[in-house]
Amino acid sequence: MKAVCVYCGSSNGVDPKYGDAARAFGRALVAADLGLVYGGGKVGLMGIIADTVMGEGGRAIGVIPELLVDKEVGHNGLTELHVVPDMHHRKKMMADLSDGFVAMPGGVGTLEELFEVYTWAQLGYHHKPVGVLNIDGFYDPLVALLQHTVREGFMRETNLDLLQFDSDPTALIGKLQRYHAPAKDKWAELRENV
Fold this sequence. Notes:
Low-confidence stretches: none
CATH architecture: 3-Layer(aba) Sandwich
Largest sheet: 7 strands, parallel
Oligomer: single chain
Number of helices: 8
């Protein structure tokens, strides 16, 4: 594992604990000798984690669409900043540059990015670990929703294990590093049993 893609808010949130957690996660990445791949902004949690990684002597690679360079104020103090045509190129490049994914608190963009790589993992399009930094229970409602989805028969319980949750940055990184993808993707199993 060389780099982790982090999805997080372009806002700070209402509580300083979110910024504190972004700093802690940035320090944990550098301590584990892992590079940061993220959305390329210098504002919100995105900016905090990037500034922390760079301040600690780590590597931070940003990927930002042309349309959002001004809106998200593209970060010019990174190891690399890639300006791409659109969101599709952004997400693909971020995934290609990363060996794992982590979602921190954020809005619908963060959730969309998390669910996309989670879906890709379920379908076997990638075998990289997907983690969630669950700061002070921020993602507890998501856990409850996923469990409800399983109970209602819309998802297999084994797919819950594809997401690694932890509230501690160092512990979450450890889970990502120890993650072993299923030997066979779920869809291959279904195809064989048809």
